Amino acid sequence: MKKLGLIVNPIAGMGGRVGLKGTNGADVVAKALKLGAKPVSSARAVETLRVLTRAGVEFELITYQDEMGAAEASEAGLEARVVGRITSGQTTAEDTKNAAGEMLELGVDLILAAGGDGTMSDIIEAIGTQVPVLGIPTGVKMHSATFANTPESAGQVAAHFLSEGLPLRDAEVMDIDEDAYRENRLIAELKGYARVPYEPVMMQTTKEGSTGFELADQKAIARWTIELMERGRMYILGPGTTTRAVAEELGIYNSTLLGVDLILDFKLLVRDVNERQILEAIKGKPATIIVSPIGKQGFILGRGNQQLSPAVVREVGKKNILVLTTPHKFSLTPTLKVDTGDSELDDEFRGYIPVIVGYLQTRMVKVV
Amino acid sequence: MTYRQARWARGECLEPLVFELSRAGRKGVSLHPEVPARIKIPDNLTRRSLELPELSEPQVVRHYTRLSQMNYGVDLVFYPIGSCTMKYNPKVCDELAGAEEAACIHPHQAEETVQGALELMYRLERYLAEIAGVSRVCLQPSAGAHGELLGMLLVRAYHKSKGESRTEVIVPDSAHGTNFASAAMAGFNVIIVPSNNRGRVDLKALRAAVSEKTAALMLTNPNTLGLFEDEISEIAKTVHTAGGLLYYDGANMNGILGKVRPGDMGFDIVHFNLHKTFSTPHGGGGPGAGPVGVVRKLEKFLPGPVVEYDRRRKRYYLDYNRPKSIGKIRSFYGNFGVLVKAYTYLLMMGKEGLEEVAETAVLNANYIMRKMADVGGFEVKFNGPCKHEVVFSAEPLKRETGVTARDVAKRLLDYGMHAPTYYFPPIVPEALMVEPTETETKEELDRFVAAMDEIAEEARLSPEKLRAAPTATAIGRLDEVKASREPILSWKMYRKLAK
Q1: What is the DSSP string of B413-454?
Q2: Are residues A141 and A270 in the same domain?
Q3: Taking CA atoms, which of A1, A35, A174, B70 is between 20 and 30 Å from B277?
């Protein structure tokens, strides 16, 4: 029988209605409570569990104490093996990390996590991509690609995963700087990647017209990108799964998912380089930057790839920047953004730029 | 009006396949057993068992009549499937195409024995060239997309002859899916330009897209939203200045027939859909015809042979002497029967008739657009009059009731009308693309609008009815994903899977 882990972040989503943009940190939670915030996570997690029960799938449920899962399981009428110890009413990020760690040790097949971006970041900090994770959307910020559309669809995806199995893919885990966000600045950070079940319809809304075949699209884009590559030219490969597909298509399986790699003559030259190393490597040589938009905001420069500094971008030249995006991702981010920290350089990018969206297929996309 | 489609079934099973009806030894027509074989076929190329079904003539006639009764067609119902121009096909055209002089000739016959057929092709070519404002037309392509491919091969030949390597073809995001495929199939990198907030090509994006790599722009005008690209002169100038060619997708020619010519708009290559604009029947993938017209500078690249007239000897002949030609695009001269039908249609309509086609087609689409303004749940995303078709968005209905454009389209089948094109073009959410054509009466258009009104009301009162639709047809809602991922296209495949 498959083992399902359940982690509920009871305070996730409380900041939303009271306008606090999130609940990372104990003081914010206190403030949210003071403002009259009501817990939302618990009811949504119960909804997901009920869908799972109705689907008639057999599984063993392992969850954390009290409001971190045990309470929700019993409300949904499910028997569960309860582990862990928390101080009820005062849960913290550490509890989430501990819960994820214990579930890894207990060998669960899937972790259902009710929360937002913060919860996801905590989980992958503890377990990385060792256990597949599926997000029940209950947080304020949900920029990560790990969430199902609704608690109901989370239940359906989980049921499908436990009964018939689903392919797995790496999905971006994003979190934003809440303090900055409260001041109306959006600083999104790529926290890492989670392993998630691949279900293109229920995991995120896609526009009609996008194929939804994310993995096949990535491969097609990678093939075309490689056909455009020239010998003797340095390729600076930015972070992300679409750019990683380019490396994999070249037979490079140890590229840096979160960092920047240098590729020369179809071979990996240096892994995980910083700004200085890039500048040294490309000095006076032809070079091309390959990037894909990071997160739902569509940043191609300045988010998750700060190594590609204004100096690097200027040295390479705007016309030598290849932007890749899948049709699915394009439907989520129909316009692109740059924020290199050099507003003059950012201005040069505004207007329409070509973006590779498939094999032999490029789309003119607006940078705003 | 209530409607129920015929459902021929034996128990739960629909009308059996013709192979399942077969019994060994049953015959319809007996062929004379002693026809001498004139060609000696080598043993290794001879098939011993043909595995053809064996049935009597009445069995065959009944089988196919039953199948036709479980289907929709222009001879039976209103068929507003956008961008397909499903107009009525006059029977006289079929009759002439079926006449002995047209149906019983062979492409290998000597030229002097088929002068009439050659004359028909010669004249049809000139009529089409005049209608599109181009200098010559190749009649060979068997479908619109086939014409597109020929067009793209001509683009490649043209640039190559000038010693230029141009690798990119620009296509708007509202274009027919075939445009992207045809350009890619001819080896071009497809550059997609977005539409502006008026539903037309975004000129700023187009200017950013053109370069010394631009080989051509493919454009449909009126576009798939049924809107005329009113900045066409500026678009043409932008592409031509960059050294590229302009390709006209003729799918929507019904909206401008006799009013404005692609050649005059600046297009260099034009394809026609004879099975749309010129009223020949659509068949499941064929036989259609997608002739391609070109301006003078591209003539020499057209496939051979071309039909010419020898003034001195007063006879038509096939000219194969075309050294710059891209080569053949199809066997022989195209779907000749389809050409006969289109030629008959052209002669019947005449210049005034063709103009009236465009006028009535546009009037009918605008009539539906105005009447639909009073039907809650649907909206038009881009204001202003349309041409021959109109795209509605069912987004308001979906927001209000959860019912989708697909549900609405399927429910229309229960009202005895074919569904509009849905979810295309992709730039309109919950799109329903309606093209009434000129051959419908006002009463039929009113009946359509009334049905849409009733369906919107049903969506509010009993949405489950729409989600279950169609229920009045022989077959209910199909699993579209399964149908396109695991198609069973032949008896052989079916048998293999049954094992």
Answers
A1: HHTTSPPPEES-STTSTTEEEE---TTS-HHHHHHHHHHHHH
A2: no
A3: B70
